[in-house]
Amino acid sequence: MSVSFARSCGAAIVLSLSAQAALADVSAQDVWSDWKSYMTTTGYKVTGTEAKSGNTLTVSDLLLEMPVMDAEASGSIAMPNIQFVENGDGTVNILLPKEMPLQFKMDGPDGAVEGTFIYSHDGSPMLVSGDTDEMTYDYATALMGFSLSGLTVPGEDIPAEAVKFKATLTDVVTKTVMTKTDLRSYEQTLTSASLDYDFGVTDPEGKGEGSFKGALQDLTFNGTTSIPDGTESADMAALLRNGLSASGRFDFAGGNSAISGRERRDSFAMESASQGGSISFDMSDAGLTYDVRQNQTELNISGSDIPFPLALSMAETGFKLMVPVTKSDEEQDFGLAVFLRDFDVPEVLWGMVDPTGALPHDPATIAIDLAGKAKLAFDMFDPASMEAIDNGELAPGELNALSVNALEVSVAGAELTGTGDFTFNNDDLETYDGMPAPSGEANLKLVGANTLLDTLISMGLVSDSDAMGARMMMGLLAVPGDGEDTLTSKIELTEDGQIKANGQRIK
Fold it and tell me: Which residues belong to the signal peptide in this entry (predicted)?
């Protein structure tokens, strides 16, 4: 995420999103003026030649230039012309070129890396209705595409076929409602029958190649964006404080992908398929959140270093991250969750470690959900602050609290679960060797551990002495719980630096 987020969202809105009909009138000049106002507000430099003839306003040689992060990177969108056609019923059709070049440039130590993406569609018009305070857009196209048409790297002669990127959306229907008050708000929806993508790199000297391709089916998107009006700024932190926010969720019904690579004689390939999933995000001055989930994933892996193909499956996988993004003297929420449920490996792998089937071959689960509070001492989107953090000139902030909302690890018949809550004293950096001193407790439950140890001993995978050491550790930290082969443990960290296990001091 960077300062280009708002600008990129703006370009996507302008070029491909739309909204429901409204009961008011707009003119061609109204629509074009609002576009210019929006683009300059979010940092674009807009140039073009306007000409009105009858019911049509034509903007020729339109160029949208955008700095990205800093002067070392930039991008632009060029259109030979764009037409705003008044329909005579208070609505306006926008006619975009069937192909539009999106150019980018990034300076580096050896010179500038430059390239061009081509945005294409079938030429369908975009319908605009409403009034100057609330414009609504409605757009549908049978085909929308993005492709890389050229790439220049300093000191490298890159053939056109060496690097490829292509993404295609089919049967796209988009809607956007643009409301203008103190903030510009955009309510957005999108549906698409499919998304196909194909990315590949080939070494011109024939030493290797790699590719990543796949497809998603039945995509939907719902989102809201709010942008401060009249704030021409490249300072993302300032925009966030003034009200910039964006949230949305992508869902898909199914997907498949294939990754392959080759370097001289070494090769690797992985194919995957899933039964749907979602990607959601939320950004404001309160923080940044990503939440990614996928259902029933199947993986097939092969390669020159893998003795036989592997087939793996996972019922559910997910990742969630929540972090603060703006400097504050007040505590802010953060969180991290990772889960992999019902991870199943093929029997051929079990057979290598457990040929007699002594162990339960049930699918494994690993899941952890963390939440906490912290004080952030810098703006995450401020490059100068980030550099100071990297150089050790600025402390990132304070960790104040951490909660383990859920912990679950189950494998081979044993299961560990637990929760915990801790606070941190940032004035005490001595008790734990430079770490803020924690206080609080964790409650754990372990089921099936002794049975698993006995089985591993009988299989010859664990020695009696190693098992004895593990049992002594469990005896020190845990007590018998309800149920057979069940242990529980209450670990306490006190404010005076003590560590207790089930009421017994161990430090």
Answer: 1-21
Of 376, 373, 375, 398, nearest in space to 385 by CA: 376
Q: What number of other Cβ atoms are within 10 A of residue 176's Cβ?
A: 26
Residues 6+ apart with CB under 8 A from 227: 6, 10, 38, 41, 42, 183, 184, 186, 239, 243, 244
CB 23 within 8 A of CB 43: no
**CA-CA distance, 4 to 1, in Å (whole number)?**
8
Neighbours of 460 (CB within 10 A): 7
| Angle in degrees, CA 145, 150, 155, rounded to 5 | 155
Residue 444 Rama label (left phi>0; alpha psi -120 to 50; beta):
beta
Closest Cα partner for 91 from 51, 53, 55, 140? 55
- Exposure string (b/e) for 201-225, b if CB count within 10 Å is 16 or more? ebeeeeeeeebbbbbbeebebbbeb
Please state the three-class secondary structure of 428-481 as a single string.
Answer: CCCCECCECEEEEEEEEEEECHHHHHHHHHHHCCCCHHHHHHHHHHHHHHCEEC
* Structural Rg of the chain based on CA atoms: 28
Lookup: tokens for 279: 């990607």
Amino acid at 209: E
Give the model confidence (pLDDT) of 37-70 as tens digits: 877 776 778 888 999 999 999 999 988 887 665 5
CA dihedral over 374, 380, 385, 389, signed as positive or negative:
positive
Q: Are 373 and 401 in contact (CB under 8 A)?
A: yes
pLDDT tens digits, residue range 179-218? 887 788 889 999 999 999 999 998 877 788 999 999 999 9
Distance CA 145, CA 96 (A): 14
Tokens of 71: 């002067």
Rounded CA gap, 466 and 49, in Å?
Answer: 80
* Dist. CA 268–CA 177, nearest whole Å: 46
Report phi then psi at 28, rounded to 5: -60, -40
Backbone angles phi, psi at 233, to 5 degrees: -145, 145
Pairing of strands 414-425, 479-480: unpaired
pTM of the model: 0.83
Helices 28-41 & 4-16 angle (0-180, nearest 10): 160
Chain centroid to CA 444: 32
Beta strands in 264-363 (DSSP E): 266-274, 277-284, 287-303, 310-323, 332-344
- The yes-or-no verdict on residue 6 having pLDDT over 60 is no
User: CB-based contacts of 473: which residues, under 8 Å, 6+ apart?
Assistant: none
Amino acid at 490: K
